[in-house]
């Protein structure tokens, strides 16, 4: 259920960008990076995106998600490790807590691909 | 002429929510209010804890509550009996409060009362262990509740909330004798992901641990008032 809300948040953020564009371009792709150590399930997010963007300025946009693994850095051991989500987060060697997360917390809109007509055209105000 | 362009955005997908949270926080800072975001799975004991907290801390501090509930005002009505302003926000089908919903509550508070009189605003989030932790509302501290009945593995299975928490209350401790739950294991699991969080076992029923919790709250409020910044913000888009 929270993917519905995540998608709302995503659409709001993209909309802020879109509204700031003078020519309100046609968005064709939204590229995201989603870490494994977030509460987002990519498949659900894609589904929610399809449903929620119907009849909006993102109606024809495709969502492309790149997932990143959970990687932590252990300071006592001076090395990276991959915590097992749901099982163990502490360092497997020295058992220090997971403190320094290097990857896996991303919830990022990387880039947007859009078509723009060079001449100005009318975009309905959504 | 049609052309394809690429805009490198590199912005958090929760950016819009984050901007709202910053807005809310600057209100709190301007008014000298400490704000807590209280989160847990459904039924962990948030409302009962707030009742006990209002009964004691209400005499020492001017408190308001922003109460998130999917559909009802049941919890809000319970808390109103303690004589504090309770602003109920129905989230509809959303499973958490976002910063915009809380902004509505804050602006109502500021409209109906003098917000500078308040020292503490407690936001009771919707019962959900997953995503309230990702949606900041402008709080200064996140309080997570985990009831002892939920088992040792929850911090491992739902780590985000436990990682984000500044204070974790392990609730319903009076039930511990009837369960096969190892509280040390809960603590160890939490410490794997959040070594510095304050952990306080409590029972709203017997009162166990509540004084420790109240003391933690008092300290947060005092620390906040020592770092007062004069601010002035506008709410043009609210
Ligand atoms: N035995 C015992 N029961 C408790 C304690 N605290 C709360 N409860 C019971 O747990 C149930 C849920 O408590 P609430 O305070 O309504 O829980 P909540 O987290 O506010 O629930 P939602 O707002 O629906 O998410 C109630 O029946 C409470 O009486 C406690 O310390 N001990
Ligand atoms: Zn959610
Ligand atoms: Zn190590
Ligand atoms: Zn405002």
TrEMBL record, chain A:
Q: Which UniProt keywords apply?
A: Metal-binding, Nickel, Zinc
Keyword presence, Metal-binding: yes
For this protein, the record's Pfam families field holds:
HypA
Biological process terms from the Gene Ontology for this record are: protein maturation
Q: Mind telling me which InterPro entries this protein's record contains?
A: Hydgase_Ni_incorp_HypA/HybF_CS (IPR020538), HypA/HybF (IPR000688)
Signal peptide (residue range): none
UniProt: Ni(2+) binding residues: 2
Alphabetized GO MF terms: nickel cation binding; zinc ion binding
List positions binding Zn(2+). Answer: 74, 77, 91, 94
Give the Gene3D superfamilies listed for this entry.
3.30.2320.80
What is the protein's known function?
Involved in the maturation of [NiFe] hydrogenases. Required for nickel insertion into the metal center of the hydrogenase.
Q: Which PANTHER family does the entry mention?
A: HYDROGENASE MATURATION FACTOR HYPA (PTHR34535:SF3)
Entry similarity comment: Belongs to the HypA/HybF family.
Name of protein: Hydrogenase maturation factor HypA
From TrEMBL, chain B:
Whether Hydrolase counts among this entry's keywords is yes
One GO-annotated biological process of the protein? protein maturation
- The UniProt entry's coiled-coil ranges are none
**Gene3D superfamilies, from UniProt?**
P-loop containing nucleotide triphosphate hydrolases (3.40.50.300)
Q: Quote one Gene Ontology molecular function term.
A: zinc ion binding
Q: Does the keyword Nucleotide-binding apply?
A: yes
State the protein's name.
Answer: Hydrogenase accessory protein HypB
Originating species? Merismopedia glauca CCAP 1448/3
| Species classification | Bacteria, Bacillati, Cyanobacteriota, Cyanophyceae, Synechococcales
The gene coding this protein: hypB
